[in-house]
Amino acid sequence: GKSVNEAAAILDYATIVSAEPVKKVLLSAAANAEHNYGMDRGDLIVAEAFADQGPTLKRMNPVSKGRAHSILKRTSHITVILDVQSK
């Protein structure tokens, strides 16, 4: 329910590692709303934001005695839904 500028400022000072990619998605969604739909950035609020599980890349790590351990490289899909602030 925060404005786009307020949410971006919060993500600037967040210490969590995922704050940077989430901020990039947020700013991209705001730019898309401005360019594609002619919305004003000041009127946009974050209606919903979530991360879903993406595809998992499976890799092998060779270890001793000719064996191999599997490595799962997990990915995610970040979704940010913006809405126009009702006045």
Automatic annotation (TrEMBL):
GO terms for biological process: translation. GO terms for cellular component: cytosolic large ribosomal subunit. It holds the Pfam family Ribosomal_L22. The keyword Ribonucleoprotein applies. CDD domains: Ribosomal_L22 (cd00336). Keywords: Ribonucleoprotein, Ribosomal protein, RNA-binding, rRNA-binding. GO terms for molecular function: rRNA binding; structural constituent of ribosome. Part of the 50S ribosomal subunit. Belongs to the universal ribosomal protein uL22 family. This protein binds specifically to 23S rRNA; its binding is stimulated by other ribosomal proteins, e.g., L4, L17, and L20. It is important during the early stages of 50S assembly. It makes multiple contacts with different domains of the 23S rRNA in the assembled 50S subunit and ribosome. This is 50S ribosomal protein L22. It comes from Candidatus Borkfalkia faecigallinarum. The gene is rplV.
